[in-house]
Structure prediction request, 226 residues.
Amino acid sequence: MTDKVKKFFRKFASWRLWLHLLGMVVAVIVLLLGLQWWLLSYTHHGEGIEVPDLYGMDYRKALTMVEEQGLQLMANDSTYIKQMPAGSIVVQSPAKGMAVKEGRTIYVTINSLTIPRVRIPDLIDNCSYREAQARLQQLEFRLLPPKLIDGEKDWVYGIQWEGHNVKAGDMIARESALTLVIGNGAYEEDDAGEYFDDEEGYDGYDYGGDDIDDFLPVDLDDVFGD
Prediction:
């Protein structure tokens, strides 16, 4: 038993065994280094194109510029910012200054080419001039001087856009100029007898008496004769 153990340990002391082990370690190291070099060359690690700053630039001009640099450009969303030109870029991803590989797509959000439309709220014959004015301005409509017609003072009777009547639910471009048609209160200055009055008869004439049972005496001889 002792001789077998001695022979076993002698094998570990053999220079051939250590040479084989060293060769295996070197082979593994060379293999790992070769794999790393291949990955770096395949992915172009450390090499890249700097993403340009596209904010505020016209989309068509930006498209030409990034393609010349070996990149791609795609608009995947739109928004509306009043202060920026239509078709200009407002958001980009990846951000400016980042290093990306050749052929990388830059996604951008552009300012809408058309002004968004807004639904006209239910204001006609439903509110006063001040309330309608506040709600329409909140929706970013522009208001022209109101058009006055006979009716209850400052009551909204209609809304006009470019000379045409509009109604609740119509879609109108934001910032459009609207005209509110409101009453001028003229009917308040007319003869009150032209309108129904609880204290007077329908035609405005006071027939006398404070109660419906308070009749005037009638002589039947005058009605039927002698």
Q: What stands out?
A: Helices lie at 2-12, 15-43, 59-68, 129-138, 220-224.
